[in-house]
Write a structure and sequence with these properties.
single chain, mainly alpha, two-stranded antiparallel sheet, 13 helices, binds Phenylacetyl coenzyme A
């Protein structure tokens, strides 16, 4: 449904690829890196890279990993209340997939020399960000379908271009993640289709969920390009391929016809087809609300973080046991070798 993002041109102009980096202490290595950028070749973990490129990747990949892990919570909340065995099995599989995505992404970030403990510590102490969208509550079963349709839909739109990211391990992790996200999006849409063929109360529940999630999903793509401090450099480095606003527009254009088929109204009186632009125009996003949420003051920020910290602390005995077992095995192997 969203694979068209793979073959549309990058938002950046040809020639923009060249990294704008402060003069390097290692000009030959810097020149080699820039040649690779110009040729759109992948950078691999053992390749030399500028510190700022490494830092940007650790920031983005670890935040992405945290989003997948924290993102398990709003839907996980409904596993025990899914309306049928089939829906429960699908939801369990989806939430487990999100956990798996977090783990691939932590592994990709570790190849840049940052340990998982460091990344988790940054999350648990509130220094690292994760996606704003996971700080809102899931009030009804329809929210689970809407998260699949809209949140996973927005995530795929943003993540398909990341399959072409200049950093090899991130790009390769994203290929598998996008395949799984595609299933997530479809199952969400299908479950909403079923609800929309149900009772008036079920249809009203879907509409209410769409009303509550629509604007938050548009904000997920990040601030407008003009207010996005990381975009220009991220694009020059081939980390980001399509800008926040361009992805947001692609998402709106793809979603409006899906909403029409579903029979729901998107809660935006300014939403209208613009013949000249060949795109849907949409209304103003509440960026104050977005930043308040990003900065820790959304409706569920404190609860989400506390749940993650508790899960980490409760799992300490498993990590201790695994380390003790590894130490015992090593000792045994040394004895046998002696
Ligand atoms: N929430 O200059 P930019 C998912 C921050 S996974 C919170 O534009 P950039 C799967 C941004 O970090 C969803 N913070 O930044 C799933 C930066 O702050 P910093 C996550 C946000 O990096 C589905 C500042 O604002 N996906 O949903 C947000 O160039 C269902 C300025 O922004 C990814 O992480 C936000 N929405 O572009 C799981 C994809 N937007 O770091 C479970 C990878 C912006 O300088 C259930 N990430 N900020 O302190 C990206 O593509 C980029 O990092 C962007 C932001 C596009 C998110």
């Amino acid at each position: 449904m969203y694979t068209q993002a793979l073959d549309i041109p990058d938002s950046r102009q040809a020639g923009d690829l060249k990294a704008v980096e402060a003069p390097s202490a290692q000009p030959a290595l810097q020149a080699h890196f820039e040649q690779k950028m110009d040729a759109d070749h992948k950078i691999e973990p053992r390749d030399w890279m500028p510190d700022a490129y490494r830092k940007t990747l650790v920031r983005q990949i670890s935040q992405h990993a945290h989003s997948e892990i924290v993102g398990m919570l709003p839907e996980g909340n409904w596993i025990s209340r899914a309306p049928s065995l089939k829906r429960k099995a699908i939801l369990l599989a989806k939430v487990q997939d999100e956990g798996g995505h977090g783990l691939y992404l932590y592994s990709a970030a570790e190849t840049l020399g940052t340990s998982r403990d460091q990344m988790l510590d940054a999350l648990h102490t509130g220094r690292a960000k994760y996606s704003s969208i996971f700080n809102y509550p899931t009030l009804t079963w329809a929210d689970v379908g809407v998260i699949g349709w809209l949140v996973d839909g927005a995530a795929i739109m943003n993540q398909i271009p990341l399959c072409r990211c200049s950093y090899g391990p991130y790009a390769r992790a994203m290929i598998r993640i996008c395949k799984e996200e595609s299933f997530h999006q479809r199952q969400g849409y299908e479950s909403l289709m079923v609800l929309m063929q149900g009772t008036p109360e079920q249809r009203a529940m879907v509409q209410d969920a769409v009303n509550r999630w629509w604007w938050k999903c548009l904000a997920m793509f990040g601030p407008p390009d003009a207010d996005s401090p990381n975009s220009a450099q991220g694009m020059r480095w081939g980390i980001k391929r399509i800008s926040n606003d361009d992805l947001r527009q692609k998402f709106v254009d793809a979603t409006v016809p899906q909403a029409q088929v579903l029979g729901v109204t998107l809660p935006d009186p300014d939403l209208k087809w613009n013949e000249a632009r060949q795109h849907w125009d949409y209304g103003a996003i509440d960026w104050d609300e977005f930043w308040a949420t990003v900065n820790g003051n959304g409706p569920c920020n404190k609860e989400r973080l506390a749940t993650r910290v508790k899960a980490h602390e409760d799992g300490q005995w498993v990590r201790d046991a695994a380390l003790a077992h590894a130490a015992k095995k090593k000792e045994q192997a040394m004895k046998e070798a002696a």
